[in-house]
Amino acid sequence: MKAEIITIGDEILIGQTVDTNSAWIAQELNLLGIDVVRIVSISDKKDEIFKALNNARKNTDLVLITGGLGPTDDDITKKTLAEYFDTKLVQNKEVLKHVEEFVIKRKAHMNDRNVKQADVPENCSIIKNEIGTAPGMLFNKGDVTYISMPGVPFEMKRMMTQFILPELAKIEKGYYIIHKVILTQGWPESKLAEHLEEWENQIPEEISVAYLPSPGIIKLRLTAKGTNQEHLINLISDQVKKLKILIPRLICGYDNDKLEDIVGMLLNKEKKTLSLAESCTGGNISHLITSIPGSSEYFLGGVVAYSNQIKEAVLFVNNNSIVNYGAVSKQVVEEMAMGVRRLYKSDFSIATSGIAGPGGGTEEKPVGTTWIAVASETMVLSKKYVLGNHRGRNIQMASIIALNMLRKLILGIEL
């Protein structure tokens, strides 16, 4: 089965609202073995809705629509769908009863706009909205099924989970889409693709490969499609084993893993603690670490040492090191790592010092020059990176690299 997702709303097109609905729906459909061939966002205009519906019917079996079902005048989806499916709006008594009960429970009063929510296209099947007033609507036209849902995420998700997905699972039983994501860190996309070219040319035809770059991480997504689930799982597993041999030092996680979570689990397992000394990352690593529930078990604290005075006074960095080598240097970042370990009496530490940009660079140390150090009781290791000239990206990349350096130190993997 092939599906298309259509989101309706000017607020999406102008960037006022981020379309999280499509991503969630696509993930759920993939789990059922349903191919999402297109995701489209359109404005609240009749001609745009008509055009999108006409395009969708050409190569899909299922069209899922969200948005435009509210009670205000700018919500025109319901009226437009009635016209598109050659019918009229009629009041549905069951929906009206639900709306009345819903409004009364919230100690509010029914008005004309609430009553309008019970007007639905006469030829649609109603999908109950248990936690809202706008019902879902199902239409069939030719061989295509259309399902319109509210744009409010929690209402849409409840409707999908309770009613729509179980029905789709019955229809699509027997076809599978298996994904496996391998997280890599250390090489840019071009170098990784070149290194894996021979492997990629030899993978089974049931499997496709996608490179998904983000700051600091390149994800390899393997996708297998077919009717034999066990066979597909085995094919994916075989390819993952080959990648472990081809790029063992680059792989840092799988699927939805996050480095901050992986590091946290390692520290918990070893019953070890961590402290941070951040300059160019400005506390971002601390943010990532503390975003994980339970991080207080292993994270003791950190220092954002932006000025040289704080590096010296709080982190015990030698003034001569700063004068002779500069704040962005191997000597200073290693002293920061050792100093924060000493300050917090932690088992491990991370330190960062760099020129995040866009200004401040020199010919010797251009924007993006970053030194990162990790330390344990027995050693301190550091490495220099030249990341680029985008400040936000540099901060993200340095944070990811630092966490992976710590992961390798804990596991005894060469940096």
Task: Please describe what this structure looks like.
This protein has 16 helices and 17 strands. By secondary structure, the protein is α/β, with parallel strands linked by helices. It folds into three domains: 2-171, Molybdenum Cofactor Biosythetic Enzyme, Chain A (3-Layer(aba) Sandwich), CATH 3.40.980.10; 176-254, 2-Layer Sandwich (Alpha-Beta Plaits), CATH 3.30.70.2860; 259-411, Alpha-Beta Complex (Maf protein). The chain has a six-stranded mixed beta sheet with strand order 2-1-3-8-7-6, with helices on both faces. Strands 14-13-15-16-17 form a five-stranded mixed beta sheet, sandwiched between helices. Strands 10-11-9-12 form a four-stranded antiparallel beta sheet. Helix 2 packs parallel to helix 7 (153-171).
